[in-house]
Write a structure and sequence with these properties.
single chain, 146 residues, alpha+beta, four-stranded mixed beta sheet, two-stranded antiparallel sheet, 6 strands, 26% strand
């Protein structure tokens, strides 16, 4: 199984990640996929005999096994094998808004819909009003080595 590049061991304070998956197989025509993944998921535990209210627990969201939502990408992973793919974190995000916004910006900067080298076939992001404490960062496409 492929490990994440640039994923810190301590994920405290990190809501999610924006990542790029690179296909290194020589016969492949599509090579990249940009996506986002929430690191922890919220689970509600029902009331019990000793606890009268729902309890909210944060659990692992299966990041280590995650490969993205693109059907073409997943088909190529089966076809070529996981060893030909690398998963690299390109941005750590502190909130849901930050994660969704950063994913969209990276996809637009890389022209993921227009470039045939990308598996991305749809850009679907729902954003709300910008949080008051949100500070945007400069994203350099050159660091991706496309």
């Amino acid at each position: 199984m492929s490990k994440w590049i640039n994923l810190p061991d301590n994920i405290e304070g990190i809501f999610g990640i924006v990542y790029i998956i690179k296909n290194k197989h020589p016969d492949s025509t599509k090579q990249f996929y940009i996506g986002a993944k929430q690191l922890l998921r919220k689970t509600r535990l029902k009331p019990t005999k000793t606890r009268k209210r729902n309890k909210i627990v944060w659990r692992d969201n299966g990041v280590e096994e995650y490969w993205g939502s693109s059907k073409e990408l997943l088909d190529d992973i089966v076809k070529y094998g996981e060893d030909y793919f690398t998963k690299e974190v390109i941005e750590l995000c502190g909130s849901k808004f930050h994660m969704k916004y950063a994913e969209l910006v990276w996809q637009i900067k890389c022209k993921a819909l227009f470039d045939p080298r990308f598996y991305n076939g749809i850009l679907s992001v729902r954003l709300s009003k910008v949080p008051t404490n949100f500070k945007d960062v400069i994203r350099d496409i050159n660091k991706l080595n496309l």
